[in-house]
Amino acid sequence: MDISIDFMRRIADAAAAETLPRFRSQGAVVNKEAGSFDPVTEADREAERVIRALISAEYPDHGILGEEHGSENTSSRHVWVIDPIDGTRAFISGLPVWGTLVGLTVDGDAVAGMMSQPFTGELFYANASGAHYEGPGGPRKLATRKTTDLAEATLFTTTPALFKGEARQRYDRFETTVRLARYGTDCYAFAMVAAGSVDIVADPGLKPYDIVALIPIIEKAGGVVTTFDGGPAEKGGDIVAAATPELHAAAMAALRG
Predict the structure, then answer these.
(1) Same-domain pairing of 163 and 232
(2) Is residue 42 a known part of a binding site?
(3) Domain that holds residue 179
(4) Which of 48, 183, 199, 253 is most buried, judging by how many CB atoms fall within 10 Å of its CB?
(5) Does this model's pTM top 0.85?
(6) Annotated Gene Ontology MF terms (predicted)?
């Protein structure tokens, strides 16, 4: 099925009405995970609430999986996957590299998705017509770079500290093979693969709501997104996205060791 850009814009606008007034406002932060730091804010919860309401009104038979408010009707063929603020740590730090992620799966495959960054006024989305951008510089179709050689690639990861044990050693070796490595930016780095500014993103331990919305944006722009072992990315896990199939294969080989 096709999802209209008008519906994606409505979702982005509704979420922004909850997130932007709370951004850089020093609001309360709650830690969801004892012994660690997994922050959630009122903005996360309220943005997901309004997104779910829009989806339920437009597609009452569809299921929903959200980071903050759980799942409903996920036995449906059509399931929406929501991360109201991907990059909450960036959000509470005042950095505009977080985003609202909303994706649609049909029979488990990600077919449409959007990433909205309202502070910078950017919307990245994919539907049946392809992958698109709206924001500063004007609308355009998204296309990945044609990089095939690791030595010419720009690599992003949230932080190498997420790689544990031997996986960290493999990542460190991998990083030495690329031209440029940078850290952080969560979903924004994946969007930059689709936009042709970044070549590889490697992030371990992602949840479905961290990646589902981004899969069709990258794939329809010409890139590849899988787990480190080449499996489908829709269920999360250790995820690598790359600008070309050749670069993706090289990155997978390096990350597997």
Answers:
(1) yes
(2) no
(3) 150-256
(4) 199
(5) yes
(6) histidinol-phosphatase activity; inositol monophosphate 1-phosphatase activity; metal ion binding
